[in-house]
Please model this.
Amino acid sequence: MTTSPPEGGRRRPGPAPRLSRDLIAEAVLGVGFEEVTVTAVAQRLSATHAALYRHVTDRDDLVRAAVERVADRAPQPELGPDWEQLLRGEAWVRWRIFTEYPGIRQAVAGLSWSTDPFGARSLPVVRHLISLGFPAEAALLATDVVIDMVDESAVTAVDTRRLGPAAVGQRIQDSFPDPELDADLRRIAFQAMVEDQDVWFGNKLDVVLAGIRVTLAPGTAGTPTGDA
Model:
């Protein structure tokens, strides 16, 4: 889905390519959302600030260009007959992106609704759920619940990776202080937070989808009906 940018804040040696908004976006991804500044991007591209400002307006626009670049390369939602496959697929796309690019979730949160490409991805999902028989309220709620779970889980996963296994292990011990009574809890928590975050995320997603299946999906007793 993505290509790995050169490591570090500076570009590889060689002639400087002609600047474009796409090239600047790739430079932002190379620098990283958490470290991005106009100066860092200019250095990576061996360009002047003035040259960058011919394509972007300010730092926020740098970030917006990079977010748009990532969103453009992401697989589009599969609008098929299976609502669960639709929500599961969209959840995994967002999870991969938000954990691959530390800081991108916070960057997205800083964009206005009208310029947030990930917010724009939600509307086709909601509309398709309605076409599959979900009442409008249920379609919006189901999509919102899944997206919120992805957002929170991804931010936690990135923060955990930043801390490192030793620090996470110590926090787990502090949270589960009894080495005998809490041995299984410590092991499970460490596996979830450090050893295989994808598996734990998949388990959480299964639980969320199971809840939608019995409370919001068409034909269930809990489905809102006021706007059906």
Notes: The radius of gyration is 21 Å. The chain has eleven helices and no strands. The CA atoms of residues 165 and 194 lie 6 Å apart.
